[in-house]
Amino acid sequence: MPQNEHIELHRKRHGYRFNHFEKLKKKEGRLPHILSKKAQTLRGIKIKSHEEKETKQRQDVPEGALPTYLLDRETETRSKVLSNSIKQKRKEKAGKWDVPIPKVKAVSEAEVFRVVQSGKRKKKAWKRLVTKPCFVGEAFTRKPPKYERFIRPMALRFTKAHVTHPELKATFQLPILGVKKNPSSPLYTSLGVITKGTVLEVNVSELGILFSQEQYFDSRGLFISTILSIPVLLNCCLLVSFWLWETVGLLKICAKRLKISRQKQQQQYVQDAEKKKD
Predict the structure, then answer these.
(1) Least confident of 20-29, 40-49, 113-122, 199-208
(2) How far apart are the first and last CA of the chain?
(3) Is the C-alpha dihedral spanning 102, 103, 104, 108 positive or negative?
(4) Which among 14, 81, 137, 148 has most CB atoms closer than 10 A?
């Protein structure tokens, strides 16, 4: 028998005390009065834990369970299946045109983060302050300062980048949409830390890049950053040869139209030459 069951063993050998059941009955009788007093006098988090039974608790619902108002509907329509398949094809196409990650010197955590001591006696050292430029989305909401592990200062949060087009040899200030890949660490990618060689997603709809007579590229583009040593500047260079799959589709259309126009010009030239001979 386990060591912690010595009371049960004693009861098996010698039985209960003569007043055991009487005391138990009196204790049960006192319980409602004790609970009533607690409900009237407790405050704050103690009353919250006391009334857990009365408050609504989130129940664990099995995966795939449908609510009652959706049971009479079809689980999956044909249009939904079609849209899912289209999305999957787009993902596969987009994977073909991935941006090459540059080989740069990795930035250590000691350089990116600074230890922030917290607690009443300043003995806790689990918080980190980001010392490099970073990107935070518009819909971002901070955790309570007490529980925030990685602190990203407002002064180092960038929303725009200076993007240079290598063919046009012009620089544009474009809004950043997200950090796609930081070659130094996946942690930096998730935090949106921007170091040298980071792949950024930037909105290029403002450039109005023309691919054919009436078609503009109005979407997102992938850019590779070549950030200078000064942390205030955020300079990037456009990867012209690595566009998203939508751009590649537009380029194919342009190539076809160019081919057709050249064939027409050649036919016209042949006809003009025959007329001159006659």
Answers:
(1) 199-208
(2) 119
(3) positive
(4) 148
pLDDT tens for each residue of 14-54: 999 999 999 999 999 999 999 899 888 988 888 877 777 66
Residue-wise pLDDT tens digits, 57-77: 777 777 777 777 777 665 556
CATH number (2.40.10.310, 2.60.40.10, 3.30.420.10, 3.30.160.20) of 109-243 reads: 2.40.10.310
Contact 107, 195 (CB under 8 A): yes
Q: Confirm if 52 and 58 have CB atoms less than 8 A apart.
A: no
Residues 6+ apart with CB under 8 A from 69: none
Amino acid (one-letter) located at 104: V
